[in-house]
Amino acid sequence: MYITSDAIRGHIDTIILAQLEHKDSYGYEINKTVKNKTNDLYEIKEATLYSAFKRLEEQECISSYWGSHDVGARRKYYSITDKGRNELAKNRVEWKNTVKIIELLIEEEK
Amino acid sequence: MKRIENHINKLFSELPSTQEVYDTKLELLVDSREKYEDLINKGMSSVEAEQTIINDLGSIQDWKKEFSVDTNKPIVSKPVKKNNTRRNIIIAVVAIILVPSLIIGAYALNNAFFYAEDSGSETGGNGSVGNNSNGTEDNTIEKEDLYNKTIKDLHMMKELKVDTVAYDVLIIEDNSKEEITISLETSIDDEIIIRTKDDEVKIVSKYEDKHKIMNNTKYSGTFTIHVPSKYIKDLEVDTVSGQVALEGKESESIFDEVDLETVSGEVEIKNIIVRDLDINTVSGSIELVNILNEEKMSLETVSGDTTIAVTTTHPKFEVKKETISGKYNDVRTSHGEGIVYLEFDSVSGSLTIEDYSK
Lengths: 110, 358
Prior knowledge:
The complex is a heterodimer of chains A (about 110) and B (about 350). Chain A is mainly alpha-helical. Helix content of chain A is about 55%, strand content about 10%. Chain A has a two-stranded antiparallel ribbon with strand order 1-2. Chain B has about 350 residues and is of the alpha/beta class. Chain B is built from 7 helices and 20 strands. Chain B has helices at about 1-15, 20-40, 45-55, 60-65, 80-100, 100-120, 205-210; strands spanning about 140-145, 150, 160-165, 170-175, 180-185, 190-195, 200-205, 220-225, 235-240, 245, 255-260, 265-270, 275-280, 285-290, 290-300, 305-310, 315-325, 330, 335-345, 350-355. In chain B, the strands form 2 sheets. In chain B, strands 1-2-5-8-4-10-12-14-16-20-18 form an 11-stranded mixed β-sheet, with no helix packed on it. A 9-stranded mixed β-sheet of chain B has the order 6-7-3-9-11-13-15-19-17. The interface of A and B includes residues 47 and 58 of A.
């Protein structure tokens, strides 16, 4: 199921960085993780995912390398950089504050 | 998997040709293969798995949106050919005249984008015989004269594309030959240009390729192409005012994917077997005679009428139609086993399915 919510889309970069925080990964694997973690509620569209990799790489938040042949096909792995970790930490704080503020503002009054 | 690969190749052929985009395509191919295996392991059939992956990939618009605009790197901005502008105008005008609805607007825009990008991916190299400007030299092409050419050694070839503005395109399937022969009859000075890339061979006219501004198309002519379907499995024809005809020999002419587009020309197909057939016209009519469609068919026409005549052993058509005022008539007396899916999309064109008798 695809949620084409702009609200989520705006956080794609952070979502990807978070999946790379503890281990290097590749496109399909990241998307599988995203799907599992959200119980199939959300899946990143491929076009969005791969263009985010490109963007994050340009911003030097991630780096990539071609994996070895021994596990099937040669594939491109992504790895988070120090800059990416900083960005992720910053975005986490920002997101928590955002949630707090929005909740306060849109909560139904009892 | 082949279908997915073709689909990805097609998507990416419309994106800017940079190293990054190419890398992404490779990633996507590898990832799709893994996804495919996962889906099969979950119990999907190969057809379902392929369809799921293709659906998930999204539309070309999604990819263009993500890849054509946002990159900071200076992508070589390729000039859009004027003739395509003209093409777009024709589409837009025809569309506006016919039905000024949003759907049509979107359709025209869609096509405008497609054509612009399509031409953009063509480099200016003239790709004539022996010319290696695109790294596409192919010494299997023999030059006979400007209006008759032959492509030999088809073992690595899989797809034939023809791109023209005003010429009619007549493709005759002929398995008795081991080569593709192309001849061009035209009212002006011109030359057949052949470009090969990977497993694909593309045919254009030198005049149409060079004259970016098509003030008038007061010329006409016909590309006649003989193609053996034992090598060439996929066909793609794109013309604006020309007609497209594809003729085969019953039960011998077997294609995988056939994709024909024209704006005002008619489309006629006879005696072929095809797995996946895609036809798109604006005002031209579509006539399919004694064909065997194995899997699915997609017909789009704004105002042209469509007639399909098939033998009584042809599988039943499961029709999914979207039409505003077009009539639909299935007057077949009986059908064979199985089902083929027919998507019919038209504003005012009618669809008739009838028996074919020799």
